[in-house]
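Our platform keeps sequence and structure together, in a single record for each protein. Nothing more is needed to write down the fold, since each code stands for a local backbone conformation. An entry from our holdings is shown next, in its original layout:
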Amino acid sequence: MNHSDHEHEMEHGGHEDHEKGKCVVCGGELSEKHRMEGEHVHSSMIDDLKKRFWISLTISIPILILSPTVQGLVGLGDSIRFNGDLYLLFVLSSIVYFYGGYPFFKGFFNEIKSRAPGMDMLISVAITSAYLYSSAVVFGLMGEVFFWELATLIDIMLIGHWLEMRSVMGASRALEELVKLMPSNAHKIIPDGSVIDVPLNELVVGDQVVIKPGEKVPVDGEIIRGSTSIDESMLTGESEPLFKEIGAEVIGGSINGEGSIKVEIKKTGKDSFLSKVITLVEEAQASKSKTQNLADRFATGLTIIALSGGFITLLVWSVVSNFGFEFALERAVTVMVIACPHALGLAIPLVVAVSTSLSARNGLLIRNRASFERSRAIDAIIFDKTGTLTEGKFGVTDIVHLSSEYRENDILKYAASLESYSEHPIAKGVVNSAKETFDVEDFKSIPGKGIQGKINTKNVEVVSPGYLKELNIDISNEMVDKLLSEGKTIIFVIIEGELKGAIALADIIREESKEAIKKFKDMGIQCIMITGDRKEVAEWVSKEIGLDKYYAEVLPQEKAEKVREIQSEGLIVAMTGDGINDAPALAQADVGIAIGAGTDVAIEAGDVVLVRSNPLDAVYIIKLAKSTYKKMFENLAWGAGYNIFAIPIAAGVLYSFGILLTPATGVILMSLSTIIVAFNSRFLKIEK
């Protein structure tokens, strides 16, 4: 059954080259192998961090017991010292340094390669300084060992990384989910006319396949026999199922409706529509902004401070004092070790863990922390229409009675009675809007035109506008013309050969959409809609909910291009969508917000997932991001406060006053800073 003469023409295109990006979880190069192994790789990484933490923590206990500084701090003196204790301390600390420190050395190497120093570089500098200096002390250099600092720093950084990775989900599986859209087999027609099931990779251009009702279309092709309605909404954004007959194109991954059709294959492999969407998602993910997150930017600054402070301290004490090189070296190492406060290792992970838990309780799942952080500063938010601002299903919006003989409720009741025998989505929309129906006799379908039957001995037909023209029935009516101009789908009710009424249907706008748009505008954020649906439909939705602008009849590859176009204006852009056609744009946007009730493809391409199909949750994501970023900054400020106070004293600027920061004093300050950070993290909340 057809309720629209709208034809959807597809154009294909894609980019051949793109730069390689970084994995949002591990920071590694987003290679093909990395994409394919994605989930398993990151799960193994989390397990590896957990294992390294527990082993390092276990070995750290005897390191703390054997450390002279810790013994003095707790009042044990030399009561548990013995010959060779420092050598044992060296061996245990070497295990923790190489085994527990390995993830940070690996990260340090990657940061050097990418010329983006961050947290791993700061940690590596601190633990290496402590290890080399302490080892030299064990084998003859005058000074104090920092093995206890080395071990506890590695332990806390390991648990921080573990908490953070466990809180943030693995890399996107969008490409894998896209492949799943295709059926594994197709019903191929062989030369003798019989049908056999074959894998898709055995099909070639020119082959013919049969697609049964309700099945997914396996290939891009052309209908050569039969007619049906095809649901392409998740692929193209077209909200209304399209009636297709001989000569019409079908897209692999779309869903066949009520008819059985024979299709000749026109495109396979990389030339198919879905393969081009896969390429677009891949390109957008790879070229996504590599802006460092707050912790890495902060760590970069501390790394510079640590190296500069250590060098200046060594230089000054070596040149202007008589204490000797050993004293100058000890001061320099103390500065570099203290420059990496333990609180910094927990400042971000604790907030991430709390915000992830808080967001999950509110139906907001964070997948990419860096993009989530950027959402606090977005300038424009782009919405898909179907399934995002609307419910993605048809409902009756208007009823026009064209005869005084029948009221609006009568018109709907007659239409729903016939439509109850149809499986078409529009039919379901009519039936769901009616409270009761009549009994129907002699029901018949008019392929591509409508349905008919006998109700209360009267001949009743529910038909499309095109069929009325064939019957030479005049449909000129001011209200009907207005509804058509809004892009609504109109069906007409004919009783005993006379036109009695019209029913308008549209993809129902979500109740929350208008409120969400108002809240975004109150925050100074532009609200834009990009949809594959018709211009008239897009204009109606835009006016109803108060959008700033809209783009209609946009294909998937064009959606990503529109996002790039808006980004080129210097705007930080968020994209919200739920369909396969939204995946490239979700991946391209600075922040991709996927609707959880949509396709797995959209979800996997998004940085944040809204469990509920509620646009208001996108508002709360922005507010949570602002609160989270503020809390992260507060925690880092506490860590910075520790550094501002401790580094100059550790360098010896107050030595002339008899004040010198010893490792024992350092551990007290470190503990206080860590406790404050942990306590502060618990007070994170979403600002309403």
Summary: The first strand starts at residue 185 and ends at 189. Confidence is low (pLDDT under 50) at residues 1-40, 168-175, 287-292. The chain has 24 helices and 22 strands.
